[in-house]
Amino acid sequence: MTDADIEMVVAIIRPDRLTDVKRALAEVGAPSLTVTDVSGRGSQPAKKSQWRGEEYVVDLHQKVKVECVVADIPAEDVAEAIADAAHTGEKGDGKIFVLPVADAYQVRTGKTGPDAV
Description:
By secondary structure, the chain is of the alpha+beta class.
């Protein structure tokens, strides 16, 4: 592998903020991403609901996981763009993690390392 760092930015955000996050990533030059529907819990409070007269608690909230691998763009810029676009100021806005990537392989071309990103 070369000297260049490859990093993955993983964000768990509100689904309704995804369009703004995609736009923000494109603006910082990181248009490639993977999006997965997920559910989880953190500091956002549980909600009580009723269905057919029975009360139940919803403590797993629907979120979206956004993954973006970068080599030529600082991961901090990507994380900041996501944070700015996903921010509402309410509990449950999400979390962002920056992880090192040991290596990358592009299946179609056979490129490796930062060239594969």
